[in-house]
Amino acid sequence: MLGIVAASTALFASIGWASGIVLAQMPAKALGAFEFTRIQLIFCAALMGVLSSLFDLWPSIDWQHWPAFLVSSLGGILLGNLAMIECLRRGGPRLTELLLCLKAPVVAGLAYFWIGETIGPVDLLGGVLILAGLVIAIRFGSQAEREEGVAGKRLLSVVLLGLLAATLQGAGFLAVKPALTAGAEPVAVTAIRLLGAAAVISLASIWPSQAVRADTETSPYLLFRTIMPGVIGYGISSSLLLYAFANTQAGVAAVLGSLSPLCVLLILWATKGKRPGLEAMAGTAIAVIGTAVIVLY
After folding, report:
1. Distance of alpha carbon 257 from alpha carbon 250, whole angstroms
2. What's the pTM?
3. Cβ neighbours of 172 (radius 10 Å)
4. Could you give the 3-state DSSP secondary structure of residue 205?
5. To the nearest 10°, the Cα dihedral for 90, 91, 92, 93?
6. What contacts 28, CB < 8 A, 6 or more positions away?
7. Nearest Cα residue to 144 out of 92, 90, 87
8. Residue 279 CB neighbours (<10 A)
9. Residues 85-134: tens digit of each pLDDT
């Protein structure tokens, strides 16, 4: 039962990230990667910190794990999300989510070498099916998305940013797995990660450079559009995935947490009329079969 619950939380995390990344494209383009990330981190860090205090979650934290919290906060959240937002600005949600699928094999590989965790043959089969389905679904996407393709040097920069984001985010989640298995509450761990990243990015914003300035003036509406995907992604989805990491194998949690590209296709179809092609539908079916293999067997 615990495995099914953990798998379900990872799946819900995927849905949350898909919603967040679609909502984030407009404000991210308007503000720039740095300012967009700064606003999200500060608000979400405060929110998760307050929730951890209200529900008395801080005593669950063993501060002997502070090096892992530091790595997860600076690498996984700050640098990883800066790379992801810049990738989103340049490549759009479909290509960004495709590249972030690589988070799953990265986490599985790191978990093997870092903490000696191996994936069983059934889970491995399910993971391969999910990743294959994701690649097929997002690679073909919709006709409208293919016509908006990114090419040349711009494509290379998008791919490099996506790979960097996937590696940093995956390593950031894996770094705190020992703390989670020791009994740390996922919401409190999320708060620590966000508070550390928010502190660093706030200090960096003092630097007198255009690189850390907003590309446009912030309005109340733009601020709301920036905060909303942050709460969904940083607050809700990250906490759900951390719960999955604490209660199942890291590779399995990462694979199930990588299904957001399929949700992105459905959201874009519902909101913008970009209907997925037959290939994308087939890829989705393969990924669903892979998910069923992991969850049911």
Report:
1. 10
2. 0.82
3. 26
4. coil
5. -130
6. 36, 85, 88, 89
7. 92
8. 13
9. 888 888 887 778 778 877 778 888 888 888 787 778 887 888 788 888 87
